[in-house]
Amino acid sequence: MVEELKGLLNNSYSVYSHYSVASIVVMKDGKTFKGVNVENASYGACICAERSAIVSAISNGYTKGDFDSIYIMNSTDKIGPSCFLCRQVISELFDKTAKVIFMNILGEMEEHTVEEICPYPFDSDKL
User: Fold this and answer.
1) For range 2-10, the mean pLDDT
2) Which of 73-98 are b and which e, b meaning 16 or more Cβ less than 10 Å from the residue's Cβ?
3) Which residues contact 63 (CB under 8 A, 6 or more apart)?
4) How far apart are CA 111 and CA 41, in angstroms?
5) The pLDDT value given to residue 85
6) Percent of the chain's residues with pLDDT above 90
7) Burial level of 46, CB count in 10 A (0-12/13-18/19+)?
8) How far is CA 73 from CA 48, 62, 78, 126, in A?
9) Stretch 51-60: mean pLDDT, rounded?
10) In what order do the strands lie in the sheet with 94-103?
11) Rounded CA gap, 70 and 25, in Å?
12) Quick one: CA dihedral 76, 5, 59, 125, positive or negative?
């Protein structure tokens, strides 16, 4: 997974921040979907790698509960967690016990559960 994520970082369009991020979601049936961050001069139009990979899975017919784990790597030597927009999407579609693995370019990693990265989720029960 480390080498695949490193290669995927090359597809990132991060001309403004120069902070490339790649993500791979693993589905419960073993299929994987890839994503990278895509920036835009209108910053609100940017999409993160996590949401890019998740949306690809959804576009291919997967749905809530089909996600097993997500791997996220950035292009620096620091391990960077997902932004809160991504955490919201992850908490909506993944089981609370699903693995979320944050990695840096060196392959160092931190493993968490969805519940750990989003202990107070905003979900349909709150509507």
Assistant:
1) 96
2) bbbeeebbebeeebbbbbbebbbeeb
3) 93
4) 32
5) 95
6) 92
7) middle
8) 12, 23, 10, 31
9) 98
10) 32-36, 21-27, 67-74, 94-103, 109-113
11) 4
12) negative
Residues making up the chain, counted from first to last = 127
DSSP bridge partners of 71 = 24, 101
Residue recorded with tokens 């419960």: 28
Among all residues, which ones are annotated catalytic? Answer: 50
Comparing CA positions, the residue from 117, 123, 116, 125 lying closest to residue 93 is: 123
Among 103, 95, 19, 93, smallest CA distance to 56 is for: 93
Query: Which amino acid appears at position 62 of this protein?
Result: Y
pTM of the model: 0.95
Q: How far is the CA of 19 from the CAs of 14, 16, 27, 44, 110, in angstroms?
A: 6, 8, 26, 16, 19
List, in sequence order, every residue forming a beta bridge with 72; answer none if it has no partner: 23, 102
Rounded Cα–Cα distance for residues 78 and 93 (Å): 27
Question: Could you identify the residue written with the tokens 């016990």?
Answer: 97
